[in-house]
Amino acid sequence: MIKGRNIYIILFSIAVLGLFIVQYQYLKIGLNLAKVQFNKNIVAASQVIKSDLSTENELTFLIGKSITKDGTYFAVSLDSVQDASSHFLNDFLKDRLAAKGITTNFSYQIISKDSTYYLHSPKVFDAKEKINTYPIELEGYLSGLVDKRLVLELQFNDINTYFLSQLNGLTIPSLIFMLTIIIVVVWVLKSFYWQRKIIVTTNEFINNLTHELKTPVFSIGLATKLLEKDSTEQQEPIIVLIRQQIDRLKNHIDKVLELGSLESSRSVFNLKGIDFSPNLQRICEEFSMLSKLEEAIFNYELPNQELFIKAESSHLENAINNLLDNAKKYSKNPEIKLVAEVKQKKLFITIIDNGEGISKKDKARIFQKYYRVTEGDLYKVKGYGLGLSYVKKVIKNHNGKIYLESELGKGTKITIAIPLINSYEFGQA
């Protein structure tokens, strides 16, 4: 088993490493494609910018006054004219670049072929930064003003970060999916080994339990038959109750043997359309008689109508009896109430007790197999922690749901909901 686990871990590690390598290769390809697309967009934007700055218009007129240092046309200083033209040109370039899908930070400068400096952007990058430069040779109006060949240099820094941001739609989901795969695989492996351990424990438990229970059940049944011969009229109801509980215990033993099948399939369930009303009535009457003998208070309210459901009656009865037993066992002076009602095309069976209640931590695990509520390091009630796990499986296989409401010191309320069927489906499988 340890060898098999090591093989799984090695295969999993290789698979994860392979995924990271593939992701890295895809990232490199994506960066190259982003660079190609960026250069393509720069060329397209350069053509538009070059065309717009080649003719005389309000912007080129303002820039022309700035680069020729002619402030006579404006009622402000030459510095103000140059500052204004710098900002207007910056906004113009930002708009034209954005129109072609380029939204990263940039700066610019206008220089001539002989390196004469004319104008720069409001924001200038540090010379120590890695800068990518894209020159645009200006023609027409502006070049004619200074009688020189002017070049508009667009400058971009940290261009790789920009490329990566463009790939976020690819890289971030990929990383999320890889992380999800890792978590799922780890969880599956953990569950696999946990389940194997549980299966071994379950098989050992079932074998031991059935051998231990069958002998005393047979002996009690034999003793009951002997008692029947000499029973008085007052003793007869008690003997009847004992016989009923022996039959019920035999049923429990059979259902424990079927518990292993519940783990893998629903083959042990033969759901048939039945009227569950008589079954529910019988459960309540038997538990009421038992409660009187044990000085517990039990009340029940049942709807005066037929309750057609698809069920495996023995399993469903065992589940309800299990919940009633729990309500009695976990209460010092038991006061239990069962309420059955029909609403939203479902049969709701609610069992309320005045017991000690269940903590929030325990509620999250109460339906897990072998889990039992403890007080400190002690189990207050003897058991194997199978009851509620069995109940949940039974209700699930009846296409129903189970709801738990409980607070420490305020008792517990458990509701099961089973879908109703139409009367014409009665008796159908």
Could you please describe the fold and organization of this structure?
- The protein has 429 residues and is of the alpha+beta class.
- The protein folds into three domains: 2-166, no CATH class; 192-268; 269-429, Heat Shock Protein 90.
- It is built from eleven helices and eleven strands.
- It has helices at 2-52, 58-67, 78-99, 141-146, 159-166, 168-229, 236-264, 277-293, 313-329, 360-363, 387-397; strands spanning 107-112, 117-120, 131-138, 150-157, 272-275, 297-301, 308-311, 335-343, 346-353, 401-406, 412-419.
- Strands 6-8-9-11-10 form a five-stranded mixed β-sheet, with helices on one face.
- A hairpin with a 4-residue loop joins strand 1 and strand 2 (117-120).
- Helix 1 packs across helix 3, helix 1 runs antiparallel to helix 6 (168-229) and helix 6 (168-229) runs antiparallel to helix 7.
- The model is unreliable at 376-385 (pLDDT under 50).
